[in-house]
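Reply to dn_fold:

You asked what the input looked like. This is it:
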Amino acid sequence: MRKSTLLKLLTFGLLLSLMLVACGNGDETEAAATTAPDEGDGEEFVGTSVSAESCDYGGKILSIEAVDELTVVFTLCSPDPAFPGKAAFTPFGILPAEFIAATGGTGDILEQPVGTGPYMVSDWVRGESVTYTRFDDYWGDAPAAETVVLRWNAESAARLLELQAGTADMVTLVSKDDFQAIEDDPNLQLIPVPNPNIFYIGFTNTFAPWDNVDVRRAVGMGIDRQRIVDNFYPPGSEVASHFTPCSIPNGCAGDEWYEFDLEAANALLDDAGFPRDENGVRFTTSIYFRDVVRVYLPQAPIVAVEIQTQLLENLGIDAEVVEMESGEFITESGNGRLDGLHLLGWGADYPHVTNFLDFHFGRIGTQFGDSYPDVYEQLEAGAQIGDEAAAQSIYEAANNAIRELLPMVPIAHGTAADAALASLGGAYTPPFGATQFMYLDPGDDTLVYVQNAEPIGLWCADMTDGESLRPCQQVVETLLEYGQDSGEVHGELATSCTSNDDGSVWTCALRSGVLFHDGSSFDANDVVASWAVGLDMANPSHVGSTGDFFYFGYLWDSFINAED
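and this is what came back:
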């Protein structure tokens, strides 16, 4: 079935009236919400668009236009060879334009999003579970399980006990101490997690003494990173030589990180005006973290205490360890509001160095306080070059600037593993994105999957944590997707996205005959609406759980109609 022209025209009128209310009668606006409808017999497709007045707003996307029912054109302000990898990333998933407008970017869209995916959210019992049911009109192959129950437990030992008891089919991130026992158990299977990642200690340079690069450098040289990896990480993990793992092209361009050097580190603190008092303490601070298991940080509370111990013993810095709720921690650290050190990390979302560097060190970044032009100007140049060899010198300069300015201290690239019942068919963990429940066959009608924390929200566009992106990825699909094994990008809701010669215009041909969970048909206007709601801060549905829509700003350099 197709959406009726009447429904499209009603939606067009609703979106246009909302934009007029938001922008004010007669006021100039930097973004146009939609094109005018075509003249015709009432049956022609009414294409919409979102655009900036010009590229002077500082972002990468000039316009997104639905040129016909199954074609969307992205016109960029500069070439972006990483566009396919970004477009495959979960926050850029597609929802119905009418659903977005009807919710106003809050309410049902946060907990029961309408997508095109193989599963629909049927129930979210806060603190307990999310239940999915199979979408029988799914355009692709039917999932094996009719029902999926997603649960969570912060303790890896408790997750493993569920698996051993047979009350779960697959669990995430088992303890390194249990690897061998799982491999030795004929009823279980160990599934390595191949996701490139980094764990780091972050500073916010708008708070003293972290506004002093020599103080930051002292911590960068005064933490025994090898001791942390040896004591708290699984075999195969390694001390980070750079922020980006070396498996990502140009990730390790430039000089390696500082060697552990207590004498030099303490001399920096002496020269910076922080002598030890009679108790050997130079100053006090805080270490903020969240107790969530990650590939990059499998034992967060223990590692936090280890860093606390090293800071005091090695450098005379007395740090209080502060545990925060996960959502609050992400919001406060991401907005640069934590006065002290914060422990965070990153798992690769798409296979390009921009995913690691641009998100953290880009022009509009706030996590580390004021951003660093010596870094982001290099990143903006490198992001336009498709040839990895040609971009190498630029990323050498960017990585060397990060090393010199020390927004953070890279600690470790971790290894990890999930586990599943031996009887679970198709069990896997991909290098990019999340395990898709549709490929897992429990041998009966219900699949039980246990992850390490509750989702914060299920509208992917406004989420950054893996515990939210995994469950919403089962419901909402993107234009492109990553392969299960290689991570190579291929078609999902788009059969292809092709560029002009320099990668500044990308044309996506959409898959026909795709239905949303509400029975409406997928078309190009849904793509425009789904991207516009995150990209344009003047969009009336730009609300969400946090209102941050981080990935739209970071990966596309800025928001249209960004607030001053």
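The radius of gyration is 24 Å.
Hope that clears it up.
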